[in-house]
Amino acid sequence: MLSPSDLFVRSSRSAIGDALDRGSLQLVHRAYAGAPVVDPLRRLFDPAFTDALWEYEFSRVSPEIPGQLHGKQLEAFIHNARHRWLFWGNQVGKTTLGAVDVVMLCLGRHPNQKWKPPVHCWASALTWELWENILLPELLTWIPVDRIVSAPPPFKKSQRRDIIIRADNGKLSRITGKAAEQGAERYQSARVHRVWLDEEHPEAVWDEMQPRLLRFGGDTIATMTPLKGFTWVYGRVYEPFKSGRIATARHWCSHAGLEDNPSITVEALAELKEELKHNPAQLAARLSGLFVRPIGAVWPFDLEQHGKPMTEEQLIALCETGRHYGAIDLGKWRWIFIWGIVGPDGELTIVGEVFSQNESVDVRAKRLNDLLTKYDVPGIEQAKEGEKTRDAIIIRADNADPSSIAELNQALDRLGSKYLVAGVDGYAKTKKAGIDRVESLMNRGAFFVKRDLGDIDPERRVWRLGMSTSGMGKPVEGSRLIWEMNNWQYPKAIDGKVQKDEPDDATADGADGCDGVRYLVMTWLGPLVEEKVKKHLTAEEQIWKDALGHTNHDDDDDASASGSEYGDVVQEG
Which residues, 6+ apart, have CB-to-CB distance to 519 below 8 Å? Predict the structure, then answer.
């Protein structure tokens, strides 16, 4: 016959552990009657308990569980932002923290206890398999076993999704399991206090969740390793947060790596670095929870490296000293104007953009004109007597449809604008050359974008991804160009097939801004200099040449490009 002391002294699993596996808790409750219960959460937050790990018989994840939260976990746990985003590496404790957070809320013990129990939370995984094998065991580990009223069995298929918990005030709280593979429609028709998302969920799920939080003023915690790269989470949450465009009271982001987890040994860390050293993108994500450029990215663009913070005063000063270039990629559903300035040191900085979707030519002309006139960008105008003339901005547009350029110029003329658009030269549309030149500038530290690039009208900084006749698309906040450069990739190679060198424009929703950057750079640098090839004369031609006294002057050709700072194959236009 088992005694209550057997439950806490012996390390073997015992019949009580088997009862937990079966989802039957009556035996556990009877055995605990009148006996002190080991509460894993009280031990976790007991300052007198200093063990990094301790053996807990009723752990459903591993024999040993953490005895304390590390610094990054504690910081995220106590932060009171409405939406907390944990971009952490593998084995840093993000899933543990997610489980501890919702369990503490359901018990009524959370340091930011916004609601008295009963509390209803969702714990959502990407699939039901992950819910049954990862989230559910983690939750059952941290709920004091005598507080579990009912729960589905871990590691097993079950139709039950709810964990019922008796809170400290005697009320019954609920944690409901969810899975993104159900589809966004399964996140409807409920009122919840908190949602825990483990790993990155589809944007449609995130959007569908928001009305479910309204009734109680609910909040979220998302725990993920950002292996998918620059997805909607980066563009909609992380980048606005990092650039200060979103209040930390609404969205708060955290990075943590393996170095932050004291239970990870130096040897284990070194082994991971060695195994993944040939894939730095994977290593950065798994080691430190960083957003990384996918291996198939067209350009080595990194906003941390190529983003340039600029005040209004700095931008105005650059406008007065630099040369201005603009490029337009035309289209009904996606139309974009890119404005760049070449500074005195020969560095190109993209300082402005206008992204338009399904708008009239007059609206587009006005937005372009408003942007350039705000910063007094020189156009085609008569200089006043005694004034020094600045070079007018050169604006080139894709001339696949010349009538669109004519219509745009007519619209500019109706505004009395001093700006004029011309078709892009044929050489500037050479895709591979344009890609190579932009990449060269990036690698040499001669290409930058204004860090907070976007429309001058704050109301227009939200654009629609995938907008078409089929629908309005998904809202994305921030610069369209930066989003494209982060997402433009080469197509994934099919097994057994050669990797294609042509970028997949669909990865960047048409890559219209990237096309504009190519046109701009090619217009600035000018055409590639073609090496002259000497003609091999026939014997008869050589005789006539000698008889007429002609000499070969091919070697005397002007080598004006050889001294260019861009190498011996380009010249400046």
Answer: 327, 328, 329, 396, 397, 398, 424, 428, 429, 434
Residue 286 neighbours by CB distance under 10 Å: 23
Query: According to the model, what pLDDT value does residue 389 have?
Result: 64
CATH number, domain 68-288:
3.40.50.300
Flag the least confident range among 189-198, 269-278, 384-393: 384-393
Position 568 confidence tier, pLDDT thresholds 50, 70, 90 = very low
pTM above 0.85, yes or no: no
Tell which residue, 409, 351, 396, has the closest CA to residue 523.
396
Q: How confident is the model over 302-308, as a mean pLDDT? A: 90
Place of tokens 């465009």: 245
pLDDT at residue 297, as a whole number: 86
Our separate counts of H helices and E strands in the chain read 21, 19
The total of other beta-carbon atoms located within 10 Å of residue 170's CB is: 9
Stretch (H or E) spanning 32: helix 26-32
Side-chain half-sphere exposure of 152, counting CA atoms within 13 A: 21
Cβ distance 83 to 58 under 8 Å? no
Which residues, 6 or more positions from 249, have their beta carbon under 8 angstroms from its beta carbon? 80, 81, 82
- Confidence (pLDDT) at 10: 33
Distance CA 104, CA 99 (A): 9
- Of the chain, the percentage scoring pLDDT greater than 70 comes to 83
Is the alpha carbon torsion for 180, 185, 186, 188 positive or negative?
A: positive
Amino acid 219 reads: D
- CA angle 397/399/405 to nearest 5° reads 65
pLDDT digits (tens, 9 = 90+) for 507-551: 889 999 999 999 999 999 998 765 444 556 666 666 666 666 544
Question: Are 97 and 86 contacting, i.e. CB atoms less than 8 angstroms apart?
Answer: yes
Every domain of the chain and the residues it spans: 68-288, 304-525, 537-573
3-state secondary structure 459-511: HHCEEEECCECCECCEEEECCHHHHHHHHCECCCCCCCCCCCCCCEHHHHCCC
Cβ neighbours around 316 below 10 Å, total:
13
If pLDDT is split at 50, 70 and 90, which confidence band does 183 have? very high
Extract long-range pairs of 489-497: CB within 8 Å, 24+ residues apart: 489/294, 489/296, 489/297, 489/298, 490/296, 490/297, 490/298, 491/296, 492/296
- Specify the pairing of strand 64-66 against strand 148-150: unpaired
Topology given in CATH for the domain delimited by 304-525 = Nucleotidyltransferase; domain 5 (3.30.420)
Beta-bridged to residue 389, according to DSSP, are: none
| 382 pLDDT tier (thresholds 50, 70, 90) | low
With tokens 């990407």, the residue in question is 126
Instruction: Give per-residue burial for 100-123: e unless 16+ CB within 10 Å, then b.
Output: bbbbbbbbbebeeeebebbbbbbb
The DSSP-derived string for 534-551 is -----HHHHHHHHHHT--
Query: What six digits make up the tokens of 80?
Result: 């009171």
The token pair at 323 is 């040369």
- DSSP character for 23? T
